[in-house]
Write a structure and sequence with these properties.
Number of helices: 8
Helix content: 25-40%
Largest sheet: 4 strands, antiparallel
Shape: globular
CATH topology: Cyclic Phosphodiesterase, Chain: A
CATH superfamily: Cyclic phosphodiesterase
Number of strands: 11
Strand order of the largest sheet: 4-1-10-11
Distance between the termini: 38 Å
CATH class: Alpha Beta
């Protein structure tokens, strides 16, 4: 099976936000290794490991261009070169204060207010890199659960391989898999103080595009390159 590639934002390795996210999920996506999950109020270690299993495979990140298979005439080196070119045209986006919220049935970190430039940056990643994407397979369509999408989301899926792009995009750093509402509330309470401290001491800036690779279906995604945005 071919690998898949994704364009994500992830905080700089060893930075305060990265330390928080990698310890929360229990994984270093750069080294593809486990990290100790920090104890959390009202969340036992076994439960924390279980509720973070799904996002752990992807690493602490926000999606900019969802995982894609490359067209036969393109290589990973081609994608990397184009990603470097794109990054050189984009300015960093200060994300402002972050907050933990329930998005549907999972918990994620989102900006309190959508910052200027964020939607345009995300749209550029979607449109400028789409030429590298192989057409969706039947398995891709099943994974995207087409029957649950509205008409516009189905249109975006066919155009760009993912339904939640352009005006349907919402920047978020995923913290959990699907949760019952009481568990989600406990997670929100458990991370609130940590997030508030990070907002105060290390304001988060979208300052890089990160290339992740899924070597084979179901394997953990690995962070293989960071491209700094122009300052």
């Amino acid at each position: 099976m071919k690998p898949r590639y994704a364009i994500y934002f992830a905080p700089a390795p060893k930075s305060p936000w990265w330390e928080f996210g990698s310890h929360w999920l229990g994984r270093d996506e750069c080294l593809n290794s486990a990290r100790v999950q920090h104890a959390m109020n009202d969340i036992e270690p076994v439960e924390l490991h279980e509720i973070t299993a799904q996002p752990r495979r992807y690493g602490f990140h926000a999606t900019l261009k969802a995982p894609l298979s490359l067209r036969d005439n393109y290589s990973a080196a081609d994608l990397t070169t184009q990603l470097q070119t794109l990054a050189a045209t984009l300015k960093p986006v200060p994300l402002g204060p972050m907050q933990a919220v329930a998005l549907g049935n999972f918990v994620a970190l989102v900006p309190t207010d959508v910052p200027d430039g964020l939607m345009a940056l995300a749209a550029s990643c979607v449109t400028e890199l789409d030429g590298f994407r192989a057409p969706l397979s039947d398995a891709d369509l099943r994974r995207r659960r087409v029957e649950h999408l509205d008409a516009r989301e189905q249109e975006l899926l066919q155009l760009f391989g993912y339904p939640y792009v352009l005006e349907r995009y919402r920047f978020h750093l995923t913290l959990t898999g699907p949760l019952a509402r009481p568990t989600a509330q406990r997670v929100l309470q458990a991370v609130a103080q940590h997030v508030a401290q990070l907002n105060a001491t290390a304001p988060l800036v979208l300052d890089r595009l990160c290339l992740f690779v899924e070597p084979a279906p179901g394997l953990p995604l690995q962070r293989v390159a960071d491209m700094a945005l122009r300052t």
